[in-house]
Amino acid sequence: MTQQKPLELILARNLMSALSTPAFLVDEGGVLVFYNEAAGALLGKRFEELGKVGAEEWGSLFGPFDENGEPIPYDDLPLVVAVRNGRPAHADFEISSIDGSRHRIEASAFPILTAHGSQGAIAVFWPAGSSNGAGH
Amino acid sequence: MKVKLWGTRGSIPSPGPETIRYGGNTSCVGVTLSDGSMLALDAGTGIRSLGLALATEPARLHILLTHLHLDHIQGLVFFAPAFRSQTEIVIWGPASPEASLRDRIARYISAPLSPVEVRELPCDVSFRHCPEAEWEIGPARIRAASVAHRGPTLGYRIDDGDSSLAYIPDHEPALGADIDALEEDWISGLGLARDASLLIHDGQYADAEYPDHIGWGHSSLSHAISFARRANAERTVLFHHDPMHSDERLDQLGREARERWAAVGGREGGIELAAEHAEYELPAHAASAASAS
Question: HEC string of B202-252?
Answer without folding.
Answer: ECCECCCCHHHHCCCCCCEHHHHHHHHHHHCCCCEEEECECCCCCHHHHHH
